[in-house]
Amino acid sequence: MTEKVRVRYAPSPTGFPHVGNIRTALFNWLFARHHKGSFIVRIENTDVARTVEGAVEAILGGLRWLGMDWDEGPDVGGDYGPYFQSERLKLYQAAAKQLVEQGDAYYCYCTPERLDEMRAEQIRLKQPPGYDRHCRQISATNNVLKLISGSRRVIRFRTPMEKQTTFTDYIRGEVTFENAKIDDFILLKSGGYPTYHLASIVDDHLMQISHILRAEEWLSSTPRHLMLYKALGYKLPQFVHLPMLLGADRSKLSKRHGAVSITEYQTQGYLPEAMMNFLALLGWSLDDKTEIISRKDLIDNFSLKRVSQTAAIFNREKLDWMNGVYIRNLSSGDLTRRVIPFLERELPPEVKRPISVEYVEKIIPLIQERIKKLEEVAGLTDFFFTGELDYQPDLLIVKKMNRELAGKALETSLLKLRRLPAFDEESLETMLRPLAEELELKTGQLFGTLRVAVTGRAVAPPLFQTMIALGKERCISRIKRAIAILKEMPEETDSE
RNA sequence: GGCGCAUUCGUCUAGCGGCCUAGGACACCGCCCUCUCAAGGCGGAGAUCACCGGUUCGAAUCCGGUAUGCGCUACCA
User: Looking at the annotation, which residues of A are catalytic?
Assistant: First the structure.
C-alpha cells in the first residue's frame, strides 16, 4: 500500500447499531490499524424523517465499548470536518449544482404521487420499476418558470443510456453493469438534503478516503457512484464489498433474530474482547485453525486477502463458547471488577449495597469456569448474599435417601462441624469424607444433602469451597434450618 | 420481473490443479475425571465440496450452464 490508508465507518443514525454494522466498522478499523492509517467516523444523518433519538450515542458507545478508537469524527474532530453530514449540506448542494450546470444532472418536478402511480403501473405491466425520465428534457426557460411558481424539485442524475460500467471490487473481482438498467436517481432531495449516493461520494472525496469497505448490499449501487466520480472528476477509491451478516434463517439480520444491537450484548455480559474476536472471525480468518486471537494479533494479521466472499450467519452458540473462554482467562481481580456492576443490577433488592468487592473476589473463582455471560453470575451466586434460603424441602432428600437418613446426615455433620477447629478445605475434606462412610452413604449423597442445606439448590459450585466462602456461622445456621425443615415434612416423603 | 453477488459438515471456516479417502472450531453424542454443575482430556458421528456438463493424465479448486439463496431495484441508508 503506497498511499496512506484512510477508511471510514459511516453509520446512519436511523436505528441502533446492529452487529452486522459493527462488524463492518471492525473491518475498517482493523484495516486502518494494520496499515497505520486513519479510521474516520462520519455520521450520515441525511434522512431526517427516520432519524432515531439516541442512535448516534449508541453507535459511538458501541465502538468505544469494543475499543475501536477513531482518529477523526464526532468528539475528536479532525482536519476534514464537520463529520456530521447534516452540517455539510452546502457542499452537496454545490456539487449537485455543478452537475446540473455541466449537464450531468437535471431538475425534476415530479410529485411523489406521480412517482407512486408510475411505479404501480410499471409493476402491473411487469416492467422493471424505475424513474421514467419524465423531466429529463425540461428546458432552461421552463426551469425558471417552475422555480418562480414555487414548485418543489429534486435534482436527478442524468444517467448515460448506453454502454456499461465496470469496476474491480477487491473481494469480488470485476463486476459489470449495463448503464441502461440504471435509472436517473436522485442526488438532492426537495428539502435540500442529499441522498446517500451524492453525500458519500462528495465526502469520501473531500475526506480523501482511500478504501471503501462496506457491506455487500452496496455493490449494486456502485456503478452509480462510479458515474458520479467520473462526472465530478474525482479520483477513484478502492472498493471493497464485505460479505453480509445473516440471521439463523439466512435472511438479513433483524429484530426477530433476538439480540441484534451491540448494546444488548454489552448488557448481557459479553466481554468486548470476546465480541471483537468473534466478529472478526465472521468473514475473515487467520488460518485453518486459530480461533482465539488477541486484539493485537488481529491488528497485526488482518488482511483483506483473507476476507471471505460468502455471507455468514451470526452463531450465538459459538459466541457464548468464546465468551466463556475469555472469562476463564481473566484474573479473578479483573473478573470481579467486571462482575460487580452486574451484581449491583441483578441481585435481589434486599441485598445491601454496595456489594463488597472483597467478598465477590472470594466467590469469583467458584463460578469463573461455570459462566458464559456476566449476567449469569447473580443467578448462580445469590445464595452467597441473601439471608434466608427459599427452596423446595424435598430437594434435601437426595437420590436413594429418605427423610430420616437426610436428617441424620445433617445432624451428624452439624455436630462435627461445630467441633471443627479450623474451617478450611483440608479440614472439611478430612472430616466429611470419612463421615460419609461412617453413615454408609455415598459421598454424593452426603455432599448433595449438605449442598442443598447450605446453598438451597442441587447444583452449585464445589461444596467445601462454597462453605468456606459462606463462613462457618452461616453454614451452621443453614444446616440447622434444613434440619427443622425436614422435621416439618410429611413422613412418607422418600426419594427414588 | 430485471440486474448483481454468492454456493465446502446444522453453523463459522481451511482449501487457491495432485499434500483431500476434504482439515479446524462451535453445537451434538459417548467415555474418562468427579461431591452436583461446569471446566478439562480422549473418542465418535457429521460435507457424494448445490447440480449438470466441459478443460486436464488429474478438479472442491479452472470454464460454461442450471438451480437455490441473498442483495439492489425509495425524495432509506
Answer: 255
> Where do we find the cell 455487500?
A216
| pLDDT of A165 above 90 | yes
DSSP-based three-state secondary structure for A450: helix
* Nearest nt to the A313 alpha carbon by C1': B11
Backbone φ and ψ of A326, nearest 5°: -65, -40
Return the axis-axis angle of helices A196-206 and A89-102, rounded to nearest 10°. Answer: 100
Are β-strands A164-169 and A154-157 bridged in parallel, bridged antiparallel, or unpaired?
A: unpaired
| C-alpha cell recorded at residue A443 | 459421598
Scanning every strand, the nucleotide with its C1' closest to A220's CA turns out to be B72
Q: How far is the CA of A318 from the C1' of B45 (A)?
A: 20
Give chain A's mean pLDDT: 93
Confidence bin at A495 (pLDDT 50/70/90): very low
CA of A281 to C1' of B69 (A): 22
Cβ distance A336 to A360 under 8 Å? yes
pLDDT band at A73 (very low <50, low <70, confident <90, very high): very high
Q: Is A469 helix (H, G, I), strand (E, B) or coil?
A: helix
Q: What is the pLDDT of residues A302-350, one digit of tens each?
A: 999 999 999 999 999 999 999 999 999 999 999 999 999 999 999 999 9
Q: Which nucleotide is nearest to A173 (CA to C1')?
A: B5
Residue nearest to nucleotide B35 (CA to C1'): A444
Q: In whole angstroms, what is the distance from residue A462 CA to residue A443 CA?
A: 13
The grid cell for A239 is 472498493
CA angle in degrees (0–180, nearest 5) for A330-A331-A334: 85
**Percentages (nearest 5) of helix, strand, coil residues in chain A:** 50, 10, 35
A178 in Cβ contact with A164 (< 8 Å): yes
Domains and CATH numbers, chain A: 6-74+246-316 (3.40.50.620), 88-242 (3.40.50.620), 331-382 (1.10.8), 393-488 (1.10.10.350)
Q: What is the ipTM of this complex?
A: 0.95
Least confident of A26-35, A200-209, A415-424: A415-424
Which of A482, A460, A462 shows the shortest CA–CA distance to A414? A482
- Measure the CA–CA gap between A236 and A473, rounded to whole angstroms: 74
Give chain B positions with protein CB within 7 A: 1-8, 10-16, 23-27, 35-40, 69-77
CA A118 / C1′ B9 distance in Å: 49
Report DSSP letters for A24-65, one per residue.
Answer: HHHHHHHHHHHTT-EEEE-B----TTT--TTHHHHHHHHHHH
